[in-house]
């Protein structure tokens, strides 16, 4: 199915070869999450992201956030290391799948420059890199309104990261280039879409102090979607409509900004972003704001997030496109309250309550109903790193 | 009586512990600001003024927690959580932890950074670049 030789496979081969030579120089770490989620509305399936198939629907579900991962870092010499990170979690077919999440060769010089080559996580969001490392995050999961705008999480390519000081401030410039192919499910239609992204490049700038950081990010890609059902719908449209709504080699972008404060015991994180994909995959903007306060090993927090469509999903073309566009509405908002408890340097425990309000017909990120209804979601999870 | 005196001595040591950040005597920097030390220990940068520093964690609970509280301004749990993000994203490796009796060995290498009790500084080998206020 995939037409490319993934770079991470080269890195993987190199990594295994290296490890077999000098096993003692490899640093192995494990991480994971055991989570239980309950959503009180049986008309919706609550999921972690749009790639996940199953979730809680008026029942207790353990597959939403639960995962286990292993990471190996092999130090080749003073400048070079190789990293391989593998994950086991439920995939879009609801099967437990072991995958290579990251696998790259890393070069670091003595002047704050890092170059990575291989398979990496896409860097649009503040916590893109560590979305699966629950222990490193405050919330049980990042707000789907913002983090769900761009559904793919990795790419094959090259990344450059340069950090330095500007007086008493630090800055961090990250640029990347690569490509990606992945499967995006359309759960309501029981369809799978093969998405390819070419000419994928991004630039991120982070600036600030150890207490306050601001971040700007821009990512561009040429996106194509391959699916028989979608192609059939497009083939029945007038040429002008088909050109407007088809997703074939369309130049697309994501633009985001964030501010992050960690001052004394006070934490505040906020990101705002917008995606533009000129096609049936409509434009959207979203924001979240999270505030927490550290009290010894406890960090209680509150969060609000909201997504709004920038493109009309209720259209009237008297074609099959109308009903297909109607289910693309991702507008919703979430109010959350929770607490993170650091048990020790390896384990934490979190509880979070979410009140989710879909907005508009077929609104929201969850497989649901035409007329929006609210959901109350309760999550208890344990994160670990060893 | 001995126990009372010993307890008093230990308590005094704890209360009087003065944390300093120390580097190799040959390092050309004479002082490093608190903010820059934070940047190194938070993995924001790996070099200061053109020098790539190798920071170490000291396996001494009292000194370590004072260092985190006064310089890094995080609890041990918060610091661990912070570093797990860097570690599992391949941004940085975990900082190496050393025992107190290894300080002089580590500081014999150029451009190393470690924190310690000021009373244990050997001025013939170590250079204090920051004193915790």
What would you say this structure looks like, in words?
The complex is a heterodimer of chains A (386) and B (133). Chain A is mainly beta and 386 residues long. Chain A contains 5 helices and 17 strands. In chain A, strands 1-3-4-5-6-7-8-9-10-11-12-13-14-15-16-17 form a 16-stranded antiparallel beta barrel. Mean pLDDT of chain A is 88; it is low at 1-5. Chain B has 133 residues and is α/β, with parallel strands linked by helices. Chain B has a single domain, classed as D-Maltodextrin-Binding Protein, domain 2. Chain B is 40% helix and 23% strand. In chain B, the strands form 2 sheets. A 5-stranded mixed β-sheet of chain B has the order 5-4-6-1-7. A two-stranded antiparallel ribbon of chain B has the order 2-3. The model of chain B has no long low-confidence stretch (mean pLDDT 82). The A-B interface holds A 27, 29, 31, 69, 71, 73, 75, 81, 83, 85, 102, 104, 106, 108, 110-112, 114, 116, 121, 127, 129-130, 133, 135-137, 161, 163-165, 168, 170, 172, 209-210, 264, 294, 296-297, 342, 344-345, 348, 385 and B 33, 35-36, 38-39, 42, 44-48, 50, 52, 73, 75-78, 80-82, 84-85, 87-91, 93-94.
H-E order of chain B = HEHEEEHHEHEE
Which value, in Å, is the CA radius of gyration of chain B?
A: 15 Å
| Biggest sheet layout of chain A | 16 strands, antiparallel, barrel
How many DSSP helices of chain A?
5
Q: Radius of gyration of chain A, rounded?
A: 21 Å
* CATH-assigned homologous superfamily of chain B: Periplasmic binding protein-like II
Quote the beta fraction of chain B. 15-25%
Q: Sum up the overall morphology of chain B in one term.
A: globular
Proportion of β residues of chain A?
A: over 45%
How many domains of chain A? The number is 1
Write the CATH fold name of chain A.
Answer: Porin
Which residues of chain B sit in consecutive blocks of at least 5 with pLDDT less than 50? none
């Amino acid at each position: 199915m995939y037409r490319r030789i993934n770079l991470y496979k080269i890195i993987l081969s190199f990594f295994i070869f290296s490890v077999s030579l000098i096993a003692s120089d490899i640093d192995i770490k494990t991480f994971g999450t055991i989570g239980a989620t309950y959503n009180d509305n049986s008309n919706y399936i609550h999921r972690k992201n749009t790639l996940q198939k199953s979730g809680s629907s008026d029942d207790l579900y353990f597959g939403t956030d639960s995962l286990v991962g292993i990471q190996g870092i092999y130090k080749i010499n003073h400048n070079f290391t190789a990293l391989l990170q593998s994950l086991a979690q439920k995939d879009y077919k609801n099967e437990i799948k072991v995958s290579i999440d990251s696998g790259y060769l890393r070069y670091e010089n003595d002047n704050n420059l890092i170059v990575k080559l291989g398979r990496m996580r896409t860097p649009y969001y503040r916590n893109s890199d560590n979305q699966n490392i629950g222990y490193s995050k405050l919330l049980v999961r990042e707000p789907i309104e913002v983090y769900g705008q761009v559904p793919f999480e990795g790419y094959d390519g090259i990344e450059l990261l340069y950090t330095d000081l500007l007086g008493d401030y630090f800055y961090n410039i990250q640029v990347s280039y690569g490509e990606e192919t992945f499967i995006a499910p359309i759960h309501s239609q029981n369809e799978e879409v093969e998405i390819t992204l070419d000419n994928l490049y991004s630039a991120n700038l982070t600036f600030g102090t150890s207490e306050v950081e601001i971040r700007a990010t821009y990512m561009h890609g040429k996106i194509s979607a391959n699916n028989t059902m979608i192609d059939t719908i497009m083939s029945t449209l007038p040429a002008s409509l088909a050109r407007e709504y088809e997703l074939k080699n369309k130049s697309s972008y994501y633009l985001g900004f964030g501010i992050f404060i960690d001052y004394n015991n006070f934490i505040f994180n906020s990101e705002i972003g917008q995606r533009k994909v000129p096609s049936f995959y409509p434009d959207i903007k979203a924001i979240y704001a999270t505030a927490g306060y550290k009290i010894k090993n406890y960090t209680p927090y509150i969060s609000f997030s909201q997504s709004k469509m920038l493109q009309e999903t209720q259209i009237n073309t008297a074609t099959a496109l109308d009903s297909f566009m109607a289910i693309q509405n991702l507008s919703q908002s979430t109010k959350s309250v929770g607490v993170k408890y650091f048990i020790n340097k390896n384990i934490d425990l979190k509880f979070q309550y979410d009140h989710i309000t879909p907005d508009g017909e077929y609104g929201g990120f969850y497989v649901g109903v035409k007329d929006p209804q609210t959901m109350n979601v309760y999550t208890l999870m344990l994160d670990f790193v060893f | 009586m001995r126990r009372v005196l010993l307890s008093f001595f230990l308590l005094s040591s704890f209360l009087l512990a003065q944390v300093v950040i120390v580097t190799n005597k040959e390092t050309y920097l004479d002082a490093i600001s608190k903010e820059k030390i934070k940047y190194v220990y938070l993995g924001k940068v790996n070099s200061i003024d053109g020098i790539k520093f190798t920071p170490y964690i000291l396996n001494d609970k009292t000194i370590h927690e004072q260092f985190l509280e006064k310089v890094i301004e995080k609890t041990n749990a918060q610091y661990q959580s912070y570093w797990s993000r860097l570690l599992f994203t391949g941004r940085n490796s975990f900082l190496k932890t050393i025992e107190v009796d290894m300080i002089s060995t580590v500081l014999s290498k150029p451009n190393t950074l470690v924190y310690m009790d000021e009373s244990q500084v050997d001025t013939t080998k170590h250079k204090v670049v920051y004193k915790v206020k």
